[in-house]
């Protein structure tokens, strides 16, 4: 059912209570790459979390990139601990549908990864992505290093300028540390097993992403 929570972030008083553990099994191995989807990851691996709308298509785009060690889908940036997909869909958890990307920056640079991110969704749409409406579909980048932050901010500014010149709105991407300070924590809660590598398991499944058709400027 469509509610106001679909178009505004839920407050702590409105959020669903959640729980202290997963109530569904989470796989340990990537169905395509055969690598573990839980850390710790190999030394030198960088970790970035991205929201591009529905996480099914976003994950597929990322696992296919050279230099990616593993990917997983989950819920991040909200209030409700250990939510289910059905709970996230109500808009009352505050989470974004995010993709965990563990990659080797010596093979896949931060810029090249972000180029795929920016060019494969529309980062100007706020709480929606194409036909998918809701706060869970917001554009998001949750970084884990200062180096990532610098490249993210530079590419966001460059892409925002190009999009504005082409008469798009401003970039609305949520750009925050994956783990905030003090009580502002952004843990990544793994999604249910059938959502992991969904488009490998269901090759003709739903894979809808809006995109601007505009390239990220070189840096």
Folded structure, characterized:
The protein has about 220 residues and is an alpha+beta fold. It has one domain: Peptide methionine sulphoxide reductase MsrA (Peptide Methionine Sulfoxide Reductase, Chain A), CATH 3.30.1060.10. Helices cover about 20% and strands about 20% of the residues. The protein contains five helices and eight strands. The strands form two sheets. Strands 7-6-1-3-2-8 form a six-stranded mixed β-sheet, with helices on one face. Strands 4-5 form a two-stranded antiparallel ribbon. Helix 3 runs parallel beside helix 4. It is globular. The model has no long low-confidence stretch (mean pLDDT about 95).
Layout of helices and strands:
Layout: E1 46-52, H1 55-63, E2 68-76, H2 85-89, E3 96-103, H3 110-119, E4 128-129, E5 132-133, E6 139-143, H4 146-165, E7 174-177, E8 188-190, H5 198-201
Parallel strand pairs: 6-7
Antiparallel strand pairs: 1-3, 1-6, 2-3, 2-8, 4-5
Helix pairs in contact: 3-4
Provide the number of structural domains: 1
Top-tier CATH class: Alpha Beta
Ends distance: 44 Å
CATH fold-level topology = Peptide Methionine Sulfoxide Reductase, Chain A
Please give the CATH architecture.
2-Layer Sandwich
Global shape = globular
Which blocks of ≥5 consecutive residues have pLDDT under 50? none
- Count up the helices: 5
Order of SSEs:
EHEHEHEEEHEEH
**For the report, how would you describe the main beta sheet?**
6 strands, mixed
How many DSSP-defined strands? 8
- Radius of gyration using CA atoms only: 16 Å
Q: Specify the structural class.
A: alpha+beta
The percent of residues in helical segments reads 10-25%
The average pLDDT score comes to: 94
């Amino acid at each position: 059912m469509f509610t106001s929570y679909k178009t505004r972030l839920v407050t702590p008083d409105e959020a669903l209570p959640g729980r202290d553990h997963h109530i569904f099994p989470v796989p340990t191995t990537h169905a395509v790459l055969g690598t573990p989807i839980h850390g710790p990851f190999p030394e030198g691996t960088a970790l970035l979390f991205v929201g591009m709308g529905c996480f099914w298509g976003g994950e597929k785009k990322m696992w296919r990139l050279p230099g990616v060690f593993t990917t997983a889908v989950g819920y991040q940036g909200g209030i409700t601990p250990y939510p289910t997909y059905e709970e996230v869909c109500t808009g009352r958890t505050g989470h974004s549908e995010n993709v965990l990307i563990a990659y080797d920056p010596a093979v896949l640079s931060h810029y090249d990864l972000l180029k795929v991110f920016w060019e494969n969704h529309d980062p100007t749409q706020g709480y929606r992505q194409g036909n998918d409406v809701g706060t869970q579909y917001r554009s998001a980048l949750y970084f884990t290093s200062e180096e990532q932050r610098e490249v993210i901010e530079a590419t966001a500014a460059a892409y925002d300028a190009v999009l504005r010149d082409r008469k798009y709105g401003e970039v609305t991407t949520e750009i925050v540390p994956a783990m905030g300070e003090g009580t502002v924590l952004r843990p990544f809660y793994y999604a249910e097993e059938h959502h992991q590598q969904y488009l490998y398991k269901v090759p003709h499944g739903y894979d809808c992403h809006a995109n601007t058709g505009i390239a990220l400027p070189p840096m």
